[in-house]
Amino acid sequence: MIRCRANFGATTNFKQVIFHTSNMTEELSQQEIQRRDWVIQMRLKLTNPEMLNSDGTLCQEPRKLAEAKKRWGDREKKLLIAGITKHGVGNWGPIKDDSLAEWDSTELRVKTAMLFGRQSLKNYKGKKYTEAEIEKEHAENKRIGQETGQWKGGVLVATDEYNNT
């Protein structure tokens, strides 16, 4: 039996209602039933299905939510490199459309920064790179970052002195 508690607030004429899917524990007014059904319908339309039970109630199991998360792996890395080779750095829309539709532009930018080993991608914008060229850029950025103490979290952190290298 699924229980749901709906509190419609002090500003309305609704009282706190407790209902069960198989039997009602309290008499609901027609207006309260319509409101509850509307909430469930909106939730079904607007909420990620992975976060809902089939009856429209919110999933309370953290395990189910964790399983819905995206994972970045070697396959995605290779697809991003192929996108950079084909479309160039910063052209997230076409890269996303080609093969990484589940990733947004910000996520692709961050993953690209990790590939290049550089926080700022402005020097790479619009340029096309092969996997070997990306690895070479990463190694050079790591060298500079370690020499200057600016290698943090796997990237060369932007500094005025090294922004144009």
UniProtKB/TrEMBL annotation:
Superkingdom to which the source organism belongs: Eukaryota
InterPro entries documented for this protein: Homeodomain-like_sf (IPR009057)
This protein's name: Myb-like domain-containing protein
